Amino acid sequence: MDRPWITPEELIKFTEHEGVKNKLPERMLVMISLAESKIIAYCKHDFSDKEKYSELPEAVKNATLILADAICYNDSLRTSGKLKSESFDDYSYSVDVTETSTDFDILGITSLLDPFILDDSGDLFMRVSVL
């Protein structure tokens, strides 16, 4: 599968964060590449087998959008130097700027990616959990 799996334009349409929408496309591509690398490591393959994947599965593309959005959002918080607190005479306030977790479980993308995990033999491996 050719990379990048998603374009900066697709990420801009997907995100709700102004910091992500205003990010340079070149910087976005780096963050998209990081998201793809994390997904490749998780699934233990890069979806390049044309026989199995004539195109990138929609679930993997959606997981990439979600993860890349979180990574870009966190990057925009770090690079913008968001204001955390300020005081004026006897008046002060604090702004809680919290990074978004990029943990697959917290983002909810494990359910999208689990059907595509390969075990060491190259066969699909499905992770099952007990509720």
Account of the protein in words:
There is one protein chain. The protein is mostly helical. It has a single domain (8-116), classed as Orthogonal Bundle (Hypothetical protein yqbg), CATH 1.10.3230.10. It is built from 6 helices and 2 strands, in the order H-H-H-H-E-E-H-H. It has helices at residues 8-14, 18-21, 25-43, 58-80, 104-107, 110-113, and strands at residues 85-88, 91-94. The chain has a two-stranded antiparallel sheet with strand order 1-2. A hairpin with a 2-residue loop joins strand 1 and strand 2. It starts with 7 loop residues before the first helix and ends in an 18-residue tail after the last helix. The model has no long low-confidence stretch (mean pLDDT 85).
Tell me the layout of helices and strands.
Blueprint: H1 8-14, H2 18-21, H3 25-43, H4 58-80, E1 85-88, E2 91-94, H5 104-107, H6 110-113
Helix pairs in contact: 3-4
